[in-house]
Amino acid sequence: MIFYGTKASNLKNGQLINVDCPHCETNTSMTYSVFGKYAHIYWIPFFPVSKITVAECNNCKKTFEFKELPEAIKTKFEREKEKYPVKTPVWMFSGFGVVAVLVGIGMFVSSQTKDKEQAYIKNPKAGDVYSFKVEKEYSTMRVDKVTKDSIYFTYNDYIVDKSTGIDKIDIEKNYTIEKDVTTQKALQELYKKETIYSIDRK
Question: What is the pLDDT, as a whole number, of residue 43?
Answer without folding.
Answer: 83
